[in-house]
Amino acid sequence: MKKAKTDIPVVIVGGGPVGLFLAISLLKKGIKCRVLEKRKEPVPDSRSLGIHPVSLELFDELGITEPFLREGLIIKKGLALTADKSLGEISFEDCPPPHNYILACPQFTTEKILRKELYKLDNQALVLGAEFEFLNEMDDHIEVVYSTDEQASQRLRGAFLIGCDGKNSSVRQHASIHYSGKRYDDTYIMGDFEDTTDFGPDAAVFLLKNGLIECFPLPNGMRRWVVKTDHYHSDPTQLQLAELVSNRIGYNLTNIKSTMLSSFGVQHFMAENFCKGRVVLAGDAAHVVSPIGGQGMNLGWLDCKELATSLEDITNYRGAKSSEYAFQKLLSYSKKQRKIASKVAKRAEINMALGRKSNFPFLRNVFIKGMLHSPFKTKVAELFTMRGLSSWWI
Description:
CATH superfamily of the largest domain: FAD/NAD(P)-binding domain
CATH topology of the largest domain: FAD/NAD(P)-binding domain
CATH class of the largest domain: Alpha Beta
C-alpha cells in the first residue's frame, strides 16, 4: 500500500455508543481517529439500556467498566409470569463470572460515560455538530467532507472511513452498499415510570394471551415498561400504556411519574457487505435487529471489537501487497460479523415470537415453564445474555 495522504488514519461518522466505543478501542491500540457527530449533546432519553456480559467483558479489556457499574443497575434475575402465576425464573448468576448479570444503563448515561473516557485519551477526537456530507475515495486514502456551524464543507482525509451512523446511514448510502431486509407487523409502546412494583432489582416478563408485557428496573427508582400492541401508535399516551397494562395484568400506572414514552415497530435489515473499499460499516449502519431482547447496541460493540483488531493488524502490517492484505482483513471482518448478526437476529425473532398474541397460551407457557425448570435453564440464561454467538448453532 502506498503511503496514504491522510490527516488521520481513521475517520468515524457517528458518535453514538458504537462510534464512541470504536474510537476508544482504536486509541487504546495507538491508532489515531476522528469522530464526526452531528449532535452536540448525548441523546436526551434512555433508549437502549441493557448492557450484556459480553459487552462488559469488552469494557474490562479497555478499562472502562467501573463508571458503568457505578451509574448502572445490576439485574441478576428475570421472572417469567402470566397474569396470575409464576412460570419460573432465569438466574443470570448461574452464568460464567465475573459479569453474571445484565447491567441496566440508560443510553444518555452510556454516551456520557463513553464521551468522558474518549476525552481522557484524546480531547480532540470527537467533533460535535459535524454533519457528514459526502465522500471521495482515492487509491491511497478517502476524503470525507463535513460541515459544522462554524464552517461548511470541511475536508478530512483518512486511510479508512467507518460508518457508525445508524440504520439510515449516510455513509452506507454514499458508498452504495446495498441494505435489505423486512419489517414485521409487531408493534410496541414503551415508557419509563417511577417503580411502584415489588420486583426490586429483578426484570419481569409477562407472557399473556393478548401479548407480552416486559418491565425492567432502571437506576434512580425507575422502571421500563414495554407492551405489545395490536397496531402502531404514532403518538402514544401514558393513558394508552396504562390501560393496556391494567387490562392485562392489573397494575396501575395511570398517575405514576413518567419520563419517557414512545412507540416502535420491528425490522431486520442487513448490509450486503460490511465493507467496500476503504468504507466500513459497524452497528446499526451494518445491521438492525429486533429490539426485543436488547441485543442491538451490544452487537454493535462486538463489531467494534473485531474491527479494531482488524485495523490494528492492518496498521502493523509491514509485508508485501499491503493493500490486498488490508482489504482481505476487512472482508474477513465483514463475513464474521454478518454471520454473528444473522444469529443475533434469529435469537431476537425467537424472543419476539414468544411474546406475540397467542390462541394457545397454555401450550406456550407449559413449554417455557418446562425449560425454566429443566437442566437446560443455565443455557437459557446464557442464550438471553448473548453467550455462544461464535460457537452455538443458534
